[in-house]
Amino acid sequence: MSRNLAYGRPHSLVPYTRQGGYDRLRSERELPTVVLENETLTATFLPGHGGRLWSLIHRPTGRELLHRNEILQPANLALRDAWLAGGVEWNFGTTGHWPLTCEPLHAVRATAPDGTPVLRMYEFERLRRVIVQVDAWLPADSHVLYVHVSVRNPSPDETPVYWWTNIAVPEAPDVRVVGPADHAFRFDYISDLEYVEFPNLDGMDRSYPGRMSRAADYFLEVPDGERGWIASLDATGSGLIQTSTDRLRGRKLFCWGTAAGGRNWQEWLSGPDSAYLEIQAGLARTQLEHVPMPGGVTWSWVEAYGMAQADPEAVHGSWDEARSAVAASLHELVPPPVLDAALASTSEFVGSGEMLSHGSGWGALEIEAGSLPLVPELPFGSCDTAQRPWLELLVSGCLPVCDPPAAPVVGPRWRELLEERADDWHALYHLGLMRLADGDDDAARDAFERSVGERPTAWALRALAFLACSAEEAADLAAEAHRLLPDLRELTIEVLDALLLAGRSGEVLALIEALPQADRDHGRIRLAEARAVHASGDDDRVRVLLAEGIRVDNMREGELSLDALWTAVYPGQPVPAAYDFRMSEG
Question: Percentage of residues in the chain with pLDDT exceeding 90?
Answer without folding.
Answer: 92
